[in-house]
Amino acid sequence: MQSRNPIRSFLQAALVRCREFLKGIYWEWADPLGQGQKPRRVRKRKGPREKDIFGRQGENLAVRYLKAKGYRILALNLRFSIGEIDIIAQKDECIVFFEVKTRRTDAAGLPWEVITEPKKRRIMNMAEEYIRKKRLWDRNVRFDVLSIVWPLGEQPVVGHYEDAFNASEISE
Q: What percentage of the chain reaches a pLDDT higher than 70?
């Protein structure tokens, strides 16, 4: 008969107690009983995060802003395999793809300045796929950015940057 190591038994029991304590809060232990793997923590989602809620509020404000400016909303938060387009709208015969950036402050720069070249490239690829699926080849296309700075307890400031980027600006 094999003798049990008291330290190992103690650690296994401690891991079980930790797992039980933390299970309902934030973390889940992948291997609590030490069966050959090191325990690793896995983040458990408990509903939407604050930044996700704040981002959706910014997108809702953007939709109201665009409707007031005469745009017709075609799609919201349209998901593709490589990402998501926040808003697709139409004004006259032009299809406009919007990226909405919402921030509490502009201390780190304006929200639209954080859109990287790879992100722009993905947006253009998603736009191309959307146009192909909807057969909108005869329409003009534009890529705009809505920049919303919304400090706590204050009114938001919306910046609309028309034709913020295009294919000729993106380096391969």
A: 76
